[in-house]
Design brief:
The protein is α/β, with parallel strands linked by helices. It has a single domain, classed as 3-Layer(aba) Sandwich (UDP-N-acetylmuramoyl-L-alanine:D-glutamate ligase), CATH 3.40.1190. Helix content is 31%, strand content 22%. The strands form two sheets. It has a nine-stranded mixed sheet with strand order 5-4-1-8-9-10-11-12-13, sandwiched between helices. The protein has a four-stranded mixed sheet with strand order 3-2-6-7. Helix 1 packs across helix 8. The N and C termini lie close together (7 Å). Bound molecules: adenosine-5'-diphosphate (ADP). Adenosine-5'-diphosphate binds next to strand 12, helix 8 and helix 9.
């Protein structure tokens, strides 16, 4: 590879405040927990970190408040070598927060206060859609901003997480669909309006999702792996997956999950998306890029935490035997 792939992420930044509790509190109850842990999070920031650790030149576009949490989040991004110059500081609004309680069985209860993330708008869309190989958009920002970013054109990955109420409009984006749509099983179920569970179902869902507009759809299925469907076959026109049909469509492909000792699955999806962006921006073919992203997701679950668990190339090789295809 001659140049570093350029990835721009348009998405959220949160301070995650986590407390371990003996049991999750019910309505009106108070429980005493551990000391609070403050860790950088938000899907946009997580995906940016995943992409940066895998060799991309990454820019994050989003909003924080003019407060201490915002400054800490920006400092953490810069430590990862991420360009955070286009993160806008919104006066008078708090930085996004996620308040997370985790009990001894690893069940959790999460309350998100979006704060500045809900102020992402036209200036941020304009910043995000200039100078990039690929734009990654996740859905913890206003739907209007997502639609505007998609209509600017250029290669995009839309990670529809969490699924907004206007999901179907976003998948087709009023005529301008994302190139890639990435969802997990429950997000696919929300978009399609039916349950999606397991790899075979994920493949059917991916095939159905490309009929709504995206050129490629990936449905991730946790430990089972991931499925990819593409309008002209996952490996390109008439590639080794067989000749493409008269309608240009081809059967979906499945990537079996890598067998790894899972410690903590938080952040697997964000790692998958960040890794996929790097591989696509580097010109890796769709099926190989998806397999590499699945290997990155698997490596992420072998360590605790979200950003702290995000792998570098050597970690992916050690956990899965897959050589990261971008150098
Ligand atoms: P999300 O975190 O968005 O719910 P998933 O749980 O589907 O996303 O995980 C994303 C990807 O990470 C999966 O497609 C898979 O490749 C990988 N992955 C997740 N959990 C595991 C696991 N327990 N073992 C191996 N790979 C996993």
């Amino acid at each position: 590879m001659t140049k570093r792939p350029k990835v721009t992420v348009l998405g959220s930044l949160n301070m995650d405040i986590s407390v371990t509790v003996p049991r999750l509190p019910g309505p009106g109850a108070t429980v005493l927990g551990s000391e609070a842990r403050f860790t950088p999070g938000g899907k946009g920031a997580n995906q940016a970190v995943a992409a940066a650790r895998l060799g991309a030149d990454v820019r994050l576009v989003g909003c924080v408040g003019d407060d201490d949490f915002g400054r800490r989040l920006l400092a953490a991004l810069r430590t990862e070598g991420i360009n955070a110059d286009a993160v806008r500081i919104v006066p008078g609004v708090p930085t996004g927060l996620a308040m997370i309680a985790v009990d001894e069985a690893a069940e959790n209860l999460i309350v998100v206060a979006p704060g500045a993330n809900h102020h992402v708008g036209p200036p941020d869309v304009a910043a995000a859609t200039s100078d990039r190989d690929i734009l990654v958009i996740s859905a913890e920002i206003p739907a209007q901003a997502i639609t505007e970013a998609l209509t600017q054109g250029g290669p995009t990955i839309l990670n529809l997480a969490p699924v907004p109420s206007q999901a179907n409009a976003l998948v087709a984006a009023g005529g301008k669909a994302p190139d890639w749509l990435v969802v997990n099983e429950s997000e696919a179920a929300a978009v399609l309006g039916r349950p999606v569970s397991g790899l075979a179902d994920a493949a059917l869902a991916a095939a159905e999702l490309i009929t709504q507009g995206p050129r490629h759809a990936v449905v991730t299925a946790g430990a089972h792996g991931a499925a990819l469907a593409s309008t002209n076959g996952p490996d390109g026109p008439d590639g080794p997956d067989g000749p493409d049909g008269a309608d240009g469509a081809n059967g979906p492909e499945v990537i079996d999950g890598f067998r790894v000792p899972a410690v903590d699955t938080v952040g697997a999806g964000d790692t998958f998306v960040g890794a996929l962006a790097v591989a696509i921006a580097a010109g890796i073919p769709p099926l190989e890029a998806t397999r590499a992203a699945a290997a990155a997701g698997a490596a992420a679950v072998t360590r605790p935490g979200a950003q702290t668990a995000m792998p570098r190339a050597a970690d992916i090789l050690a956990a899965t035997g897959v050589a990261w295809p971008v150098s």
